[in-house]
Amino acid sequence: MNQKPTLKDTLIGYSYLLPALIILGVFSVYPIIKSFFMSFYADYDFFKDIVHSYGFDNFIYIFQDTEFYKSLTNTFIFVIGVVPASISISLVIAILLNSKIKFGKLFRTIYFLPFVTSVVAIAIVWQWIYHSEYGILNYFLGWFGISPIEWLNDPKWSMPALIIMCIWKSLGYNIILFLAGLQNINPQYYLAAQIDGASKFKRFWHITVPLLSPTTFFVSIVVLINSFKVFDEVFALFNGRPGPGYSAQTIVYYIFEKFYNEWEFGIASAAAFVLFIIIFIFTLIQLYVGKRKVNY
Amino acid sequence: MRQAFSKGFIYILLTIGSLLMLLPFIWMISTSLKTPGEVMSMPPTWIPESWKWDNYLKAWEMAPFLRYTLNSIIVVIVSTIGEIITTILAAYAFSRLQFWGRDIVFAILLGTMMVPGEMLLIPNFVTLSNLGWINQYEALIIPWLASIFSIFLLRQYFLGVPKELHYAAKIDGCSNFRFLWSVMVPLAKPAIVTIALLKAIGSWNAFLWPLIVTQSEEMRTLPVGLTAFTTEAGTNFELLMAASSMIILPMIILYIILQKYIIEGVSKAGLKG
């Protein structure tokens, strides 16, 4: 039945695709091309949708803008703060959950809860947790003799506050992926190693770690890419500001600020293009390494 | 003996971890039931002295939450049903039909998944304002009526259905369309439920897009309305927590009832993507 498709087959095929193609064409494919061009709009009138001139002005602007560099730095600090911590904590929890215990399902359900939770709503809860006078975090820290920290009003502490909340929120998703990866490891390897007298730690180090490495790599890239795109968390945690004194402004926040508050569509598009390039590099790494397999 | 000791250690670690995960939720619900005075009391109390259920009513009446909720429900239902329909049709075409350009179109669509959604924000805003849809339901719903990710997932599922079923149906004179609805869709029910749930959760919680395309109060969805409410509620944390609970709890209930589909879906979707 694999003969060459006829004209009729082609018409039938596209009639099934049509609804999805219209939506994806207009709202996913076309805007990618358009966004690329928009970053070169040097002089643009949004209300009439007329471009008066094209040029590199937007890129020149952002690369001279200290705000943009600050957003880049903050984003990298955020990524470095979230990714390793989130990956290692969720890996440990996944391994514990995988060790034939009772209530495993209940624990899994609890760890996954933040994933289904509205970022905006839970960020407001965290605002309350971080409250400098009546928040429980400062209260707990008080037990250890630590004096109250101005989590949300001190520029020094705004990034740590954001990072802690985002690690908390990201754990469940990573744990589920790690559990799936762990369950894909053939139990016979463990049995064979046990017969040969390998200790628990040796079994972990020589079986679990190498065989889980593709999953670990995949999860890391996913968390990394998502961390580069952080926005909702910043907006909601700092009440629609990028932290005290712009101390928690990230790339997407910069794009939002230029686009939504300052109506600088070209500059915002140029910044979005830089974000795309960063993410694209990591996607390519993922595809390249993923093909070669981190496995043995 | 050592075995029992290490098992106990695992339970202790996991319990501490789960308490840390649950703490923000418990703190939210606990605060939402307190009086303003008790909210500001130190040391904090975990169980409210008197349960002030009317905090929820107060928060509900302070801002147009009824309208926000209706908007959210409309957006979730219409965009989920719409996405499921476009996904089923497209996944069927990509997995079972033969036509010119099929693989190229599929590759182009998969390629778009690499582009961060934030990059599409500005051109899509321009498109929607040219269409006159800003601050309309169209802007909240129509761009989200199809998802290449969902098409990809369902296509994978459809590919797992034996081709012989399709041949047999064709020989018996069953049309493509009837075969899709009476054989493929019922067989793929678990995958479709997963896609629908993930979509509904994502749509209910979506923030950046509804923030940008809504301007007037009566078009806001719940998350956008909640950020506006923070200004009105000020430091009345019991009201803020009540409002947050109203957004968070429906999805938690949905998740607890249908978690099998959600967790399986996430682990399958994640590892294949």
From TrEMBL, chain A:
Residues 72-286 form the ABC transmembrane type-1 domain. Pfam families: BPD_transp_1. The keyword Protein biosynthesis does not apply. It comes from the Bacteria. It is a multi-pass membrane protein. The chain crosses the membrane at residues 12-33, 76-97, 109-129, 161-182, 203-225, 265-289. InterPro entries: ABC_transporter_permease, MetI-like, MetI-like_sf. Keywords: Cell membrane, Membrane, Transmembrane, Transmembrane helix, Transport. It is found in: Cell membrane. Belongs to the binding-protein-dependent transport system permease family. This is Carbohydrate ABC transporter membrane protein 1 (CUT1 family).
UniProtKB/TrEMBL annotation, chain B:
One of its GO terms (cellular component) is plasma membrane. Pfam families: BPD_transp_1. CDD domains: TM_PBP2. The keyword Transmembrane applies. The keyword Transcription does not apply. Keywords: Cell membrane, Membrane, Transmembrane, Transmembrane helix, Transport. Residues 69-258 form the ABC transmembrane type-1 domain. It is a multi-pass membrane protein. It comes from Ureibacillus acetophenoni. One of its GO terms (biological process) is transmembrane transport. The chain crosses the membrane at residues 9-30, 68-92, 104-127, 139-158, 179-201, 239-258. Belongs to the binding-protein-dependent transport system permease family. This is Carbohydrate ABC transporter membrane protein 2 (CUT1 family). It is found in: Cell membrane. InterPro entries: MetI-like, MetI-like_sf. It comes from the Bacteria.
